[in-house]
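DM between two lab members

TW: hey, do you still have the GntR family transcriptional regulator entry open?
JB: yeah, one sec
JB: this one, 219 aa:
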Amino acid sequence: MSQAAARAYQALREDILNGERPAGSRLREEQLAEDFGLSRTPVREAIRRLQADGLVQVVPNRGAEVVSLSAEDFEEMFGLRSVLESYAARHAALRGEADAARLHELCDAMERQLDRLDDDGAHEEITRLNLEFHQLIHQAGGRRLLPELLSRVIEVPLVRRTFHRYTTAELHRSFTQHRELAEAIAAGDGDWAQAVMQSHVLAARATLLRPEEKEEDNQ
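TW: and the structure you got?
JB:
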């Protein structure tokens, strides 16, 4: 990938993951090239890379747009996460290579956001910290292949800005599970880490797939 294409790819990827380009948004090459001060060739290359990442889809008669996923897509993704992340957590604990101190620092940082949930940036910061937390476990639990597989099934759901759907009680539960995961991994207990991660992922699935009207009632 050329330097110009890499710059366009990174900018578009960040826009998609932080919600500035929501699901269904059109990605017009001419407009993007003008926005980034580039020719259409690196923009086209960036879009192809994002399509390979699962963040962009090409729709007949419409062109490229930010991916829109059905409830069935999310069920499948969280099924994969349940298996793969539980495996990663177990092996991160058994291999003893995880940065346990950093995992606890990330837990602290996420919990501090609970006092500023009315701030528009709090959920975005939780999303960023949560992604780093999970990536540390993935990297400690496997070599190249596992982190790459998990990158796709975790980052794509972020298009739906998962943490905006959590009630305060659900955030507390999620952060408690993070704490327990960090403790299990630090203790080198693979069975404990695997069990907590599976519960954590399944709880996230229940929140994300909750019908909108029920979500509003729980706020």
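TW: got it. Confidence is low (pLDDT under 50) at residues 214-219. The two ends are 45 Å apart (CA to CA).
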